[in-house]
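note to self — DONT lose this again. spent like an hour looking for the file last time. sequence + predicted structure for the chain T wanted, 398 res
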Amino acid sequence: MDLIKQWIRRQLSNPQIVMLAGILLGVFLTIFFLGDILAPVFAALVIAYLLDGIILRIQRRGAPRLAAVCGVYVLFLLAVFMLFFVVIPSLVAELDKFVRRDVPGIVQNASQDIRDAYTKYETFKTERLSNFINTPTSPALNPDDKEAESEPPLSSQAPSSSGQGQSEGSLNVERLTESIEAELTELGRTALTLSITSLKSVVVWILYLVLVPVMVFFILKDKERLMAWFAQFLPQERGLTSKVWHEVNLQTSNYVRGKFWEVMIVWGVTFLTFSLFGLRATLLISLFVGLSVLVPYVGATLMYLPIAIIGFYQFGASSTFVWLIIAYSIIQILDGNLLAPILMSEATSLHPIAVIVAILIFGGLWGFWGVFFAIPLATLINSIIKAWPMEPAPPSSS
């Protein structure tokens, strides 16, 4: 215990360590308490950080800073315009077509499957009951059983009860189908109500769409002035913080670049594969498959459900459906065991085992967002460990 106290005193006596810990704590508290209020600012900082990497590459070729900023910013606005007026409308149109054309068919087929399964169950139950009743239990009847013999056999009554059971089963299935349709109708009404009541959120999002691009431009344009203003609050000796920032900046940019290529590769391969099968809503499904790599393992597993539902509705229990699931499984196996470890290990200088451990730890601590930010957080910890001042070993007594 004394050794731990001495180690803590030695670390706290180092002003650079105290400054680094204070910065990390301040960033954490700001995000924790003011995250919702400052969300547009954080979004603008992230976008500006990503665009600044492109600007620096252009500057290395001899272009002035302001010209590079204006050129990249115009391309950014064009990309935003294409996203909101071309890509998103296409995806929404495909989603609307899928909901209007395919979802009712899926519900109808599911209802019919439930009816067929219930009918088969009632038929099987009736046949077993008839066989049980018609099975002889004794070789001969006693003389005293003539009255019982004169009564009509129970087997003659079985069809009546069978028909009644089947009619009751059909009635139950009809009730279930009506219940499903009622739930879907209620869901539509709820969605309409939410869309009306969420008008305030829509206005806020429109405001964000205006504010964020404006802040991105000024952050890129006045980058040096903003960094100089922030640096005046730091002590002159900040070698440890500068070293950690340099390492995190390098690794994070590599991580973003690696994730970008992973999303694009998985999206493209999935789109081509599903197009060969003729799967409906291929563009929409392949997009979600590509984005699912941002949440390793969990996203890929969750995507099995919509692919299986749509594939089974379109192809039925056929070999095409089986090959569709196999093809998607092969894509995920290659991504999880070959593509992602290569890209992420090279991008973040982390061993694949360290990546998996980070996902497990941060996912267990903070759920979805822990999984989403697991690799950047692991990169930050790795950078701090590398830059941490190592104490010289005590001289050995001879």
